Amino acid sequence: MKTATRDRILNCTAKLATTPDNRKLTIRNVAEDAGVTTQAVYTLFGGKEGLIAALFEECWNTLTHRLRDVPESSHPLETLCSLGRCYIQFAKENPEFYTLMIGRATGSVTVPDRELRHAAPWSSITINVVNKAIADEILSGSPDEIGRLLWSTAHGYIDLTIHGYLRSDDERFLQQATLALFSTFAGPRYSSEMLISEEWFSS
User: According to the UniProt record, which residues make up the DNA-binding region (predicted)?
Assistant: First the structure.
């Protein structure tokens, strides 16, 4: 019961934080939307700052756990594509959470710097696979740069989809952008021995 109440409060917090109207994120508004008392919110989270911290931790932990559950392929580029699909699927299923996770300030909510640490685990998951691709001579270059560009590609696709500029089932943009990125950082074995499969991009 306590877990269900906590989850409901966090969901209402995310929706309020990303709503474009003038309704502010306050403990009273969160409690009203969640159907609980303000005391219940204070008891569980200690106040607005604790509420935002818990929301960020919940969002990033959920995404990190999902990424860690992605099976590793024998081909690191296939694994990178699988991680990208997982990341994108999470964003589509949780648009309010994703908007808050990525934006430092949304409406009346400003993200404390210390909460940005939650992005580190999933970033390291991607970098580890990129390092394997470099070790296998499939890619070459800076692991951090490749990782950031992969993230930027996924985020751009998500943002365009969420705001209606791309259909949610239109993955051609994502495929072409990812292949272009792989080609830019191609290692000795990328073109001669490693084939890119369109199935890697399929959900």
Answer: 26-45
